[in-house]
Amino acid sequence: MTAFSSTRVFVACLLPDEAKAQFSERFDARFNAHGRTLTADELVADSAGAEALVVTATDRLDAATIARLPASVRLLATYSVGHEHIDTPAARERGLTVLYTPDVLSDACADTALLLMLGAARRVVESQALVRSGAWTGWTALQLLGRDVHGARLGILGMGRIGRAVAKRARGFDMVVHYHNRSRLSPEHEAGALYHPTLDTLLVESDFLCVACPSSPETRHLIDAARIARLPPGAIIVNIARGEVIDDQALIPALESGRIFAAGLDVFEGEPNIAPAYRTLPNVFSLPHIGSSTLETRVAMARLLAHGITAAFAGEPVPNRLA
Ligand code: NAP
To answer: What is the distance in A from the centroid of ligand 1 to the CA of 297?
Structure first.
């Protein structure tokens, strides 16, 4: 039986009922009544009286919005592991506790990364179109030749929680895993993956490049034309992290020319207003940011935040505390 507290929680993001229950069973919880992402003004107004505010990656909590939050708000919880949408120093300065959802979504995202790799390498977009159009005239040895995933070299940019879960799955495909982080992992976390102190040497070894690092000023457009040119001809790029890490103006021509065989993209710069070429290029296998979108993961994310809120207000340690 879940203990109920009178803590007033406003959940500003839209959640499935099973995830909402994680808050309503524990707290005096209110939910977004608009059925869409709130504007900053609505977020501020609807937070009135709340002690904890639950947002997600599409809610921008910049310093100005944080400054306008009602005085009752003492805790900000983001229903995401990415946190570039929150001005964390401003939140800290304001005395807010900030929570996020690491670990619980890594496996779902890594599953999606494998889906992106397989879908891009095996030409799923063209295959689906052929079957659905009725134009398929039967098997030939010529049709829709893809690239092998098994045995290929996988370069992971950002070997964190999600990157390591991708590596674990890739080993099951006999892929040779390389990675680049700013700092090298322990042997236990490396699990045999080959470390590259620089991104440039990683790229040369990457038949597949999986982007799994956070969005930050440092990583914005990190995958630009010069870095794409370092990948082996016919390489495949997948992005499970954030669209901003890839420069679309560099990737799109490389896809058009075939220099890059295909891309698997779950995330896009400026989403949902994505570069139009991504809607039409046959070698782009795209998903609408569903990396962590399973019911089990959605519930686990809500449960983690709910436990964190309970612990924080009880003055206990909170493992998923960002600030
Ligand atoms: P994490 O555990 O913090 O891992 C991030 C990794 O990136 C770390 O290993 C870090 O290592 C590396 N990194 C950070 N900055 C870097 C830089 N400038 N150059 C090279 N490597 C860098 O985070 P996570 O839980 O794996 O999540 C990763 C990202 O995935 C999130 O930030 C989020 O944007 C995205 N995400 C997407 C979805 C989706 O639905 N598609 C869902 C969840 C998360 P060093 O610090 O040593 O460099």
So the answer is: 18
